[in-house]
Amino acid sequence: MPIPLDLTQLLWLAAALAAAGCITGVLAGLFGVGGGAVLVPVLYEVFGALQVPEGVRMPLCVGTSLAVIVPTSLRSFRAHRAHGAADMEIVQVWAAPVVLGVLAGSAVARFAPAALFKGVFVVVATASALRLLFFRNAGSVFGEMPGKLGMRLYGAVIGVLSSLMGIGGGQLSNLFMTLYGRPIHQAIATSAGLGSLIAIPGAIGYMIAGWPKAADFPGVAALQFPAAIGYVSLIGFGLLMPTSAWAAPYGARLAHRWPKRRLELAFGIFLLLVSARFLVGLLGG
């Protein structure tokens, strides 16, 4: 049965979520990511403090993260598009396969163990971090971008993995575009456009996938889940969304002003720390 928290603990949790929302919004603008790299580990600790059962804890983090990403990504993309940096042709080619991939990933979420979500996060986030830290100039290795069929296949893979990780796809599409030699600012702006394409069907899919799970935990009622529709926490969404959406345009402006290498190094180190946190959980569980 969940352990009741006193008012001070609840206020600290609320403050942590609001702060995470600000960081998420800034990162969404800076890197064209949805912010799942921040939201998922923060929510994981918060839901742990609320005694959410381990069997639903990770997918609840992922589903809530996807819901928060919807307004954050839209705000980020609008800010980047105002600078004329986004490649709308790539966004259009990826739109349908990305959505189909998200739906497939959401279906997997209904049956997959919690360890799968952690494992996917560790692998993809680590690969992204290594690229940011050590291979920022490796784009020419892959030559020209693939044709439409190849692009659609990549889009489907991005959709599946993003859905399982609870991210807006920015890390994956950033990695893909820069390895094919696209400028980093264009990769960031274009990746921001994928956020809502992934997050909207992903969040809906997680709501549906998690709907029957509450019955598996008799002690986890509506307010103890906590206040969730399926795998989307209304409390988490309500506390995270305002600050993340507010901060996203500021991050987009910084992306066009700050030294890019410094930002790449900082984000790469952060991703490695997050990956290490979940890897410890996998090895220990």
From TrEMBL:
Family annotation (InterPro entries): TM_pro_TauE-like (IPR002781)
Residue intervals passing through the bilayer: 12-44, 56-74, 90-109, 154-176, 188-208, 228-251, 263-283
Subcellular localization: Cell membrane; Membrane
Topology class, membrane: Multi-pass membrane protein
One Pfam family matching this protein: TauE
Swiss-Prot/TrEMBL keywords: Cell membrane, Membrane, Transmembrane, Transmembrane helix
UniProt similarity note: Belongs to the 4-toluene sulfonate uptake permease (TSUP) (TC 2.A.102) family.
Protein name per Swiss-Prot or TrEMBL: Probable membrane transporter protein
Phylogenetic classification of the source organism: Bacteria, Pseudomonadati, Pseudomonadota, Betaproteobacteria, Burkholderiales
